[in-house]
């Protein structure tokens, strides 16, 4: 059993902890928090061993009556790997100040920069490259969504040039601090945005072949991408077929009532998914089109959860637990109850 | 003085009435309403002669004590031209049932279909084609915004292929009925959207060279467009220069704090614009880029007001009041107090 420590039990960390717990070949040996909030209390209630991410804060947990086992330094030497789920930017500090010092393998999240790690992970594209490595980043929710769909397109034809406009959610559902409430924000206001290069950190062969622009809009549920991908030649049926064969992406039909990110999330709620997570990327079937060998489609990305199964596969690759990426994907999906 | 009747004093009609009133060579001989609401009362207070758009409803106005001159049929024969500002779909009915019957020239708005009229108007592209015509449509806010910017790009280079993703506002600010409140809606869910063909109704030479997709998001202030335009060759400086030379489009800088549609509207409010209308298209300077001869930019479109000066110019073209489109544009802009 691979021993996994989750450093930072927040939006991503709590989901990775739950997903790891469900796997047969790995276990969560502890989760960390910086403060004794409701998430910390619920972690303990769920049976996770809780550690203070910042040693000086351990007493805060005790004062609040939250069961705390110790600090991260009491558990880190027992871990085979740490999944760092700290807020963006902190992961890099943790890598330098903790993981490298304690010589423990670590996964950083997409909020960190690509150059701080040995390689960048997507289960479809770079599993083999990350196999046995020590410090790897699982890319962001948007990059993960793009990598999966571009993998499907690439399996049907050759990509000549990909253009993507990302329409990003303004804040997560639990975030009452951020906006916008009533505005469209070009973010970044420059073109290209960083999303294209981030895809290339996983898929170097797309260097010079992908350009992205991005805006932020007032919604909390999902991101959305409008893709325009020039290819050497393909058909709509081939693309639909490729999507069907690619794990973790599926088509939805506006005609079926799945006509917005709101109804897609309602679908995830009706599926009974915990926290209504939709780890798979939803592609609108009606939007899929091929005109002059250029593939068009629109997809919805659940920003809180699409990277979770990737973190699980990344653990398996880095700890050399399974050398076939498709087998790891299947194991992860089955344990998590994903559609495919 | 050209005698102009405004049929439908709503979001567009009230603005067209005000813009026409400000011109030296035309006057508003009346405005119509279907019901005696606050807009009807304010029209009378502002000195417009008010007529019932639907004859049977005239008594409703009298019951409410709103000064009503009569019905549309009491004034239509005095008009040189009618600007139809009825809700989408009604304009076509009015064209068949009223304007053609009374043999009066008429302008329909962008909510009507292109095929119902003789031609489609944008002051930069199709003024000459519409000159002296009887039934013309001024295209929608989105199409108008695209036409202006593509005109600028076309003046600097040749357009090979334009790809545009439109991020549309969900509802106008006065509209408490429509959504979405928290969702991104692919609308239409099919690609291409109708916006490309609508641009071609004004610019037939772009046929087969423009493809658009569109989503609706929870905001009321402005639409936004992300443009990717392949050309035969140009530079960023040439594009900025072309934008500067093109009327009714201008650049804003995110660095200056104009970093969202919200701050662009704040800018219009600070300009003292009535109803905070921004008739000009705002292009983010930071977003303008040329990579491999492809022009990238993002622009904001004030959906309630960008078509207003076009309606004024369209009147001048159809009534053969001025044969130089650039002179008409200048007259209109000056009278309305536009930047350029």
From TrEMBL, chains A, B:
One of its GO terms (biological process) is glycolytic process. GO terms for molecular function: 4-hydroxy-tetrahydrodipicolinate reductase; glyceraldehyde-3-phosphate dehydrogenase (NAD+) (phosphorylating) activity; glyceraldehyde-3-phosphate dehydrogenase (NADP+) (phosphorylating) activity; NAD binding; NADP binding. NAD(+) binds at residues 11-12, 111, 169, 303. It catalyses: D-glyceraldehyde 3-phosphate + phosphate + NAD(+) = (2R)-3-phospho-glyceroyl phosphate + NADH + H(+); D-glyceraldehyde 3-phosphate + phosphate + NADP(+) = (2R)-3-phospho-glyceroyl phosphate + NADPH + H(+). InterPro entries: DapB_N, GlycerAld/Erythrose_P_DH, GlycerAld_3-P_DH_AS, GlycerAld_3-P_DH_cat, GlycerAld_3-P_DH_NAD(P)-bd, Glyceraldehyde-3-P_DH_2_arc, NAD(P)-bd_dom_sf. The active site is at 141 (nucleophile). One of its GO terms (cellular component) is cytoplasm. Gene3D superfamilies: Dihydrodipicolinate Reductase, domain 2 (3.30.360.10), NAD(P)-binding Rossmann-like Domain (3.40.50.720). It is found in: Cytoplasm. D-glyceraldehyde 3-phosphate binds at residues 140-142, 195-196. Pathway: Carbohydrate degradation; glycolysis; pyruvate from D-glyceraldehyde 3-phosphate: step 1/5. It comes from the Archaea. Keywords: Cytoplasm, Glycolysis, NAD, NADP, Oxidoreductase. The keyword NADP applies. Its EC number is 1.2.1.59. Its main location: cytoplasm. Homotetramer. Belongs to the glyceraldehyde-3-phosphate dehydrogenase family. HAMAP family: G3P_dehdrog_arch. This is Glyceraldehyde-3-phosphate dehydrogenase.
């Amino acid at each position: 059993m691979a021993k996994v420590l989750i450093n930072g039990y927040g939006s991503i960390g709590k989901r990775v902890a739950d997903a790891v717990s469900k796997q047969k070949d790995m276990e969560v040996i502890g989760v960390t928090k910086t403060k004794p909030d409701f998430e910390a209390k619920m972690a303990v209630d769920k049976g996770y061993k809780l550690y203070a991410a910042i040693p000086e804060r351990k007493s805060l947990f005790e004062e609040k009556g939250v069961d705390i086992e110790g600090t991260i330094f009491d558990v880190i030497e027992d871990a085979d790997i740490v999944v760092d789920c700290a807020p963006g930017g902190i992961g890099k500090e943790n890598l330098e100040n903790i993981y490298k010092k304690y010589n423990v393998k670590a996964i950083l999240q997409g909020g960190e920069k690509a150059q701080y790690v040995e390689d960048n992970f997507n289960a479809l594209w770079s599993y083999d490259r990350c196999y046995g490595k020590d410090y790897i980043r699982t890319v962001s929710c948007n990059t993960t969504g793009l990598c999966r769909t571009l993998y499907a397109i690439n399996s049907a034809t050759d990509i000549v040039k990909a253009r993507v406009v990302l329409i990003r959610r303004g804040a997560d559902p639990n975030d009452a601090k951020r906006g916008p409430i009533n505005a469209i924000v070009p973010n970044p206001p420059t073109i290209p945005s960083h999303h294209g290069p981030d895809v290339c950190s996983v898929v170097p062969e797309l260097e010079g072949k992908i350009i992205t622009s991005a805006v932020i809009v007032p919604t909390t549920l999902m991101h959305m991408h409008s893709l325009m991908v020039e290819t050497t030649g393909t058909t709509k049926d081939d693309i639909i077929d490729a999507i069907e064969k690619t794990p973790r992406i599926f088509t939805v039909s506006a005609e079926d009532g799945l006509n917005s990110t709101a109804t897609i999330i309602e679908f995830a709620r009706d599926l009974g998914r915990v926290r209504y997570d939709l780890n798979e990327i939803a592609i609108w079937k009606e939007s899929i089109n091929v005109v002059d060998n250029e593939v068009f489609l629109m997809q919805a990305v659940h920003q809180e959860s699409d990277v979770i199964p990737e973190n699980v596969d990344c653990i398996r690759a880095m700890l050399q637990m399974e050398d076939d990426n498709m087998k790891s994907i299947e194991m992860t999906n089955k344990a998590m109850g994903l559609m495919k």
